[in-house]
Specification:
Helix content is 30%, strand content 24%. By secondary structure, the chain is α+β, with helices and mostly antiparallel strands. A hairpin with a 2-residue loop joins strand 6 and strand 7.
């Protein structure tokens, strides 16, 4: 791999993102619409989902590149713009958080730290924007063998996130407080997740 670079997802990078997702839209035609419209994305055509993602590809979403090739995507957005997420996962509080809701890494680039790099860039991007907090909704791979497009708990914990709630046993809500005047608790340990 050449030097990894990460850029905001802007309309001029749409073709690179489309190439990354492939004809089927990364995860079975979802095109990162699940947290916006729920299972409705399965009843819609892949073309409709692709067109809707094209409409919303704006910063702060992030695209990782190996040279000119797009190799990773992170859907980073204000939680308020993900209505299905608000219905499916109860909010912890009224803080106007941003969500890291989806990842996609090109198959041959997986297990090379791209998700970690995208999370670090998401933290940097949110801090620069003055966002008070970031949330993630990853899977705890120690508790479920499922594949996931939302990332893994261990990756978020290494980035300093901590568990603040739970949708299910294997699906915690993780948060990183970005307010400079707040005391940030140390990251939760994997053992704490098994409580």
């Amino acid at each position: 791999m050449q030097k990894l670079t990460i850029h905001p997802g802007t309309p001029d990078l749409w073709l690179a993102l489309r190439d990354l997702f492939g004809e089927k839209g990364a995860c079975g035609g979802c095109w990162c619409m699940y947290w916006r419209i729920g299972n409705e994305y399965r009843r819609r055509s892949q073309e409709a989902n692709r067109a809707d993602l094209h409409e919303v590809v704006t910063p702060p979403g992030l695209i990782a590149f190996d040279g000119e090739l797009a190799v990773g995507w992170c859907q980073l957005t204000p939680r308020a713009l993900l209505p299905w997420l608000d219905r499916a996962w109860q909010r912890i509080d009224d803080l106007p958080v941003w969500s890291i809701s989806c990842f996609y890494v090109r198959k041959e680039y997986r297990r090379q730290g791209i998700t970690s790099a995208l999370i670090q860039k998401a933290i940097e991007t949110a801090r620069k924007a003055g966002v008070p907090s970031l949330e993630g909704y990853p899977l705890d791979a120690d508790l479920s063998p499922s594949a996931t497009g939302t990332g893994y708990v261990s990756t978020f914990l290494r980035a300093g996130f901590r568990v603040v709630g739970r949708r299910s046993h294997a699906r915690p809500i993780l948060r990183l407080d970005l307010r400079s005047d707040s005391k940030v608790d140390p990251p939760a340990t994997p053992l704490a997740l098994r409580c």
